[in-house]
Amino acid sequence: MTRFALTVEYDGRPFMGWQRQDHGPSVQQAIEDAAFAVTGERVAVHAAGRTDAGVHGLGMRAHLDIAKDIAPFRLMEALNARVRPHPVAILDCVAVADDWHARFSCVARHYEYRIVQRRAPLTWERGLAWRIAADLDAEAMHAAAQILVGRHDFTTFRSAHCQADSPLRTLDRLDVARSGDRVVVLASARSFLHHQVRSMVGCLALVGQGKWSAADLRAALGARDRAALGLNAPSDGLYFVRADYP
Amino acid sequence: MTRFALTVEYDGRPFMGWQRQDHGPSVQQAIEDAAFAVTGERVAVHAAGRTDAGVHGLGMRAHLDIAKDIAPFRLMEALNARVRPHPVAILDCVAVADDWHARFSCVARHYEYRIVQRRAPLTWERGLAWRIAADLDAEAMHAAAQILVGRHDFTTFRSAHCQADSPLRTLDRLDVARSGDRVVVLASARSFLHHQVRSMVGCLALVGQGKWSAADLRAALGARDRAALGLNAPSDGLYFVRADYP
After folding, report:
1. What ipTM did this prediction achieve?
2. Less crowded by CB within 10 Å, the N or C end of chain A?
């Protein structure tokens, strides 16, 4: 039995999310089915993050255990051949120690959120970014975002369905930067609560439009109440970028 | 009657191309139908370039004549509302002189061709770039590309269906640059022959893989024979970026 660590890219649009679901396609199932086609083994694929429906992966990390004797490069090539036509790609595959775990060994997770500021609808980026017609003050968004950095009770920014034991999280980075008509938010933490990135981005978008002040954001955080959330950003613009391991 | 100049973005994947066709959807028809829905007028939309099936537009220019009294901004908003669900967006709309013509007044056209160099299949970029698994030497591609810059008989790089009177064209710019796993080709000319950019990119990809030398590219140009073409790149990676007017 060999444990393989995968780096996975996927287009979240056709999926119910990362996690296997009874009622629709998932990234996990697409990879597990491909692994079965390659090895004849029914394996479980574990990921660093279980992204929601419509959320994309640029460098998701995952692992699976295979009994068949197969080299990592061959496994990667075979999975990519068998995972079609799903928009999922294995970018990297390496053998790792038996106690390496994509989720539990992960020490940092990095997300990117893409906003396109313009009046016209999106075309080739439909489902790949959040379009906002109003002017966004990215500098004000970045300044306000620093209120959220650090160790806080993020109850306000947590979905009602969040299964984490504690609402306490340490946000290591929340950077907002503009490039032309694009505003990108980068978020890093050891772990995130359910909907935390989308909820933070939604409120930052209110700040960017001048509908919320930085003080409003601080009050929302302090309220520790989901009802104090201003806005939850759509899944379209969210990308799981990278997971770090010791 | 007012003539309006449009700047148009579109995802080429679902279309038979820019030009109206009997057998499938076109960008031209999508905009003409939207204009009819807005104004009740059956108008013809003329573009700077008639892109092929699967080719994308980032800043295509087009014009149409409208009798109804309507402000440019309102026309743009109404066209964007009515062109749905087609992946077409009017980014800009201005009133122009009656003799301004998107095609005939255009003095320069700029295309971009996007290559992704990697073994794994594309996911969210499927149909939006050309994936090449082999290593590409972008510097060798750029150096060879300069052979094509200038005034030449581009018969080798011209589709058998090209309707232009002359195979002579002046290529003003053909730049190749790498950024990570991306190789982008920028091509500028007053006008291009049918399939010229894709044919040039296809041969440059051969140079990048070491299958062709710069001398092979020079010989292909000199042959003035379509049979001397090495490879025609797929439509996926081609974007009409911008048109210039005096």
Report:
1. 0.92
2. C
Candidate from B87, B118, B123 with C-beta closest to A126? B87
Chain A residue closest in CA terms to B11: A124
- Which of 3.30.160.390, 3.30.70.580, 3.40.50.2300, 1.10.510.10 is the CATH number of A2-96? 3.30.70.580
- The whole-angstrom distance between B193's CA and the closest CA on chain A is 25
Whether residue B90 and residue A120 make contact (CB cut-off 8 A), yes or no, is yes
Chain A CB contacts of B120 below 8 Å: 9, 76, 80, 89-91
Kind of pairing, strands A108-117 and B46-47?
unpaired
Which residue among the candidates A22, A33, A52, A92 is catalytic per the annotation? Answer: A52
CATH 3.30.70.660 fits B108-244, yes or no: yes
Helix (H) or strand (E) segment spanning residue A81: helix A72-82
A52 in active site = yes
Rounded CA-CA distance B27/B55 in Å is 11
Q: Where are the domains of chain B?
A: 2-96, 108-244
- pLDDT value at residue A161: 87
Q: B175 exposed, middle or buried (CB, 10 Å; 0-12, 13-18, 19+)?
A: middle
For B114-162, the pLDDT digits (tens) are 999 999 999 999 999 999 999 999 999 999 999 999 999 999 999 988 8
pLDDT digits (tens, 9 = 90+) for B78-110: 999 999 999 999 999 999 999 999 999 999 999
Q: Which residues of B76-108 are buried (b: 16+ CB within 10 A; e: fewer)?
A: bbbbbebbeebbbbbbebeebeeebbbeebbee
